Amino acid sequence: MKIQRIVISFLCLWFITSCSQKSIDVVNVEGGSVQGIKENNLTVFKGIPFAAPPVNELRWKAPQPVNTWEGVKNTTEFAASPYQLGNPPAGKSEDCLYLNVWTPAQSPDENLPVLVWIYGGGFSFGSAAEPICTGEHLAKKGVVVVSIAYRVGKLGFLAHPELSAENPNNVSGNYGLLDQIAGLEWVQNNIAAFGGNPDKVTIFGESAGGISVSMLCASPLAKGLFRGAISQSGGSFGPTRPTNYPGENMKTLQQEEITGKDFLQKAGLSSIAELRKLKVEELPIEPGMGGAWPNVDGYVIPDNQYKLYQKGEYNDVDVLVGYNSDECAFFLTSKTPEEHITRVHQRYGKFADTLLSAYPVGEKTVPKTARDLTSAAAFGWHSWTWARLQAQTGNSNVFLYYFDQHPDYPKDSPMYSYGSPHGSEIPYVFMTLDKNNPQTTASDISLSETMSSYWTNFTKYGNPNADHLPHWPKFSTENSKLLYLDAEPRASPVPNEKSLQVLDAYFNWRITPEGQDWAK
Known about the structure:
Blueprint: H1 2-20, E1 26-29, E2 32-35, E3 37-39, E4 42-49, E5 72-74, E6 81-82, E7 92-93, E8 98-103, E9 112-118, H2 136-139, E10 144-148, H3 153-157, H4 161-166, H5 175-190, E11 196-206, H6 208-218, E12 228-232, E13 251-252, H7 253-266, H8 272-277, E14 295-296, H9 305-310, E15 318-324, H10 337-348, H11 352-358, H12 368-393, E16 398-403, H13 426-430, H14 442-461, E17 481-485, E18 490-493, H15 497-510, H16 513-519
Parallel strand pairs: 2-5, 6-7, 9-10, 9-11, 11-12, 12-15, 13-14, 15-16, 16-17
Antiparallel strand pairs: 1-2, 3-4, 4-8, 8-10, 17-18
Helix pairs in contact: 10-11
């Protein structure tokens, strides 16, 4: 009888404990209930809708409140990626406004920090279902990970006078950014049910995702939606220009409206109403990168971001930003020194000769020193400038990095002297390096562990440092050091800072009346 009483007491205690802890297998969110799946000590939810499908009359409109559903929605498979050229993971569809959650929490009461991923792809491609960007490994380090989808290409960024006229704010074209903001609003309203803390949200992204992070840091519409920001090869501090160049991709709303008129003409139509009636596969094809980009509309993006940061008009949150040592290694570049020199003069005008001296070309080749000019103009200068301006005008923590992990190529290799190309840091951050690849070294695995710890520490504390990690100094006007990320992470002066200063003179000139007139 004594044993029986013990068993009954244990069962009663188990029942009471189970009832007192809410399970997060099934969660109530805006729109209804969703059910996830247990995977490797996490609970994972894939394909949670955070807005209404942006189709038919909602094409080229700001995201609308999510449609409600009956019963429990099974969210165990990724939703379709946004419609784009090519074949992204999970297929593609206009009905694409979904997000994913990886949570290590066992109950909603854990109040874990939240890390929200925004994918890259030049604002023309991208997916929240990329295997290399799974939130699994970061979540195991004690944070809730969310990945948000947003519209890309002309579906996400078409501006047109008719679209501006129908908008209550008289703007158009930044629908993809508004999707991101809607996703972050969903996080604020719902993440507590997944064990996350809405007051401890950090956003992070790479390339166009990192640029998006930069834009959200400058947008009044995103104020209060996050307390920290990580930008990998991002930043948007270049001035507007009618002709796109790497790092000078932004246009004014009026300039983009002209592009929108051309898009409508390509479709052979005379109105946006007619364009909305086309099937998505019937829309004009915009090949390659640059088919879409956000614009300075005075609403989502109030002004040139350089000017906003000079005046201290931005969301002053802790930031961790950086770039890779050979960003443009595999992008299209000039094949001959003569072609390179011509292009530099065409873009930089009276600054061309100074920049060619700072970033020299070879007699018969276009080496890394020359390629570094494009890398800096597109990525490096923006991260460095972000750190400098926020250190001057803000009050939050600023951390800058330089990623330079790559194989040591022999001198007889065509890859000799190449550094770390664009995007190569992503699997290090997400801990998704292919361990079966013979080229993956022990130092790669070690660096991945270190970087993922920095990223999650920053999410938890607003500071990447911990006792077991190499110290990462804060960037300041008095101490302009960054963390050099390779096999032996260490504090370091900014590489090639004198060359960056020459490029900075060009960008400063470009925002003057003379520089603006010259670029027209």
